[in-house]
Amino acid sequence: MAATEHQKVAHFIGGNSLDVAPPGRVRDFVKEHGGHTVITKVLIANNGIAAVKEIRSVRQWSYETFGSERAIEFTVMATPEDLKVNAEYIRMADRYVEVPGGTNNNNYANVDFIVDVAERSGVHAVWAGWGHASENPKLPESLAASKHKIVFIGPPGSAMRSLGDKISSTIVAQSANVPTMAWSGTGISETTLTEDGLVTVPDDVYKKACVTTVEEGLDRAEKIGYPVMIKASEGGGGKGIRKVESPETFKNAFGAVAGEVPGDIPFLVFYYV
Questions:
Q1: Tell me: the pLDDT tens digits for 50-102?
Q2: Under 8 Å between Cβ of 228 and 270
Q3: β-strand pairing of 95-98 with 125-127
Q4: pTM
Q5: Are 231 and 166 in contact (CB under 8 A)?
Q6: Is 153 helix (H, G, I), strand (E, B) or coil?
Q7: H or E element that contains 168
Q8: Which of 34, 189, 197, 213 is the Cys-Cys partner for 1 at CB 3.0 to 4.6 Å?
Q9: Predicted confidence band at 156 (pLDDT cuts at 50, 70, 90)?
Q10: DSSP assignment, residue 86?
Q11: How far apart are CA 251 and CA 261, in angstroms?
């Protein structure tokens, strides 16, 4: 792949380039396939079955490709709770770094902490799996800006912002003529293409699909038809969502959604199926 082609995937280019990577089977593989970054050391910023599946999958590929399942080394983040039970992902890893326990804000969802662990561990890339910090655009951007330009194995932050947000992602889908159910942004499909070839939703277009007041919500719900769902553009796990059967119960449901998701964030209203 030519240098000009590499620029199209700049977010995947890391510090351990072909020019500085030590000789080895993985480096030869990357060079033969027109690659740019050699990844032989990976930090898994997750635990449990996610970490187990990642290690198993990559080791199988490594064995089939290089004749050795240990061509890629894995470092895992191990909490005291997981160390106490000698969790499978810790036993499978090449090494582990002990991290604080408790809620994931102390470990797997803490972007600054993950970047710090990655830098101290000397890895070339970070795999975050699913959940935790895996959909936080700050993670790939912070890793790319780190001293050793660590690669994030996943989409760039710009894609996360476009598709990770419920409102933006639905507008992008509509711009591609993907059928969507009736919602507060029905018919809104204007997107822009950046110089890097990334699809984004302009702020003024985004706002057209948002509901920020009870009055706006009632107007959109009337056009959609009841029953409807009120959903916060952020949040998850069953929080920030309510079913509304009639206009009379809309205001209370709107207030309940606002109370479950902190911050001044917009809502969307869509038809309940």
A1: 999 999 999 999 999 999 999 999 999 999 999 999 999 999 999 999 999 99
A2: yes
A3: unpaired
A4: 0.74
A5: yes
A6: coil
A7: helix 166-175
A8: 34
A9: confident
A10: T
A11: 16
